[in-house]
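I am still getting used to backbone structure tokens and would like to learn alongside you. To get us started, please write out a protein record for me. Once you have written the record down, we can walk along the chain together.
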Amino acid sequence: MDDKVNYTLVGAFVLVLGAVFVAAVLWLAAGLGGQRAVDPYQAVIRESVAGLNVDAPVKYLGVDVGKVDRIEIDPQDSRQVRLRFLIDRGTPIKQDSLAVLKTQGLTGIAYIELSGGSAGSLPLVAGAGGVAPTIPFKLSLGARLENVLTNVLANVDRVSNNINAVFDADNRQALKSALTDIAALSHSLAGQKDAMTAALKDAGRTAQLTARAAEQLGPTLDRIASSAQGVEDMAAKAGEASTRAARAVDTAASGVAQLGSETLPELTRLMTDLGELATSLRQLSEQTTGNPSSLLIGRPAPSPGPGESEP
């Protein structure tokens, strides 16, 4: 029985099997089974694309829909990176879709993740002249965390500088002096503890006496309130009396005015008549005194004056 192995046949079989495996891999990678139609898209990113290579996958909600075709510095702004994608035709890229740079697992291999966009958004189409449409790019989680950490570290650094400025040599000396004074004050207060306790007890007794005085003061306040009410009633009555007096004065004034306008003229005429009567009586008295018979025969005729003849 021949148990020798033909190594030539074994080697040939291994080589053929390896060639078939490589061909299958190349066929799957290069799409030898049929080329798929793709559409070009582009995106502009303002962050590092470390780990992202050409032919890196482009995923739509986790589904492979294309690959990265080109990576280059934006000729219009050197702070940005321009990416070009080849995405399967028919992929629902919307105008509000976003592209995000992500890494998968622990390997650190980067890829592009596309979001679906809203249902009512219009499809993103090529611009004039066949220019590849630009998908808006959103900063990756790592970039956002880096920005946040940068701001936090800047704030921490600023706070540290402010603290160092506050606690400089002069301020530290002042703080030390203040702490020394506080310690001395604490010792002084501790020495006056008995006096403070006695003062607090006195204050308590004073508060109790004040409460008792307040209780006793209540009836007095009630009596004062009653007296005040009586004074207020008297004031009201006095006001009413004053009102009545004012009315009486007004009435008297009206009477005086009437007396001045009606009675006084009559009185004046009466006094004039009395004056004339008194004059007549005086003349009659003088005539009677000089010639009493004149009451019977009348007054004699006056004597003629110089140059006058008797009648």
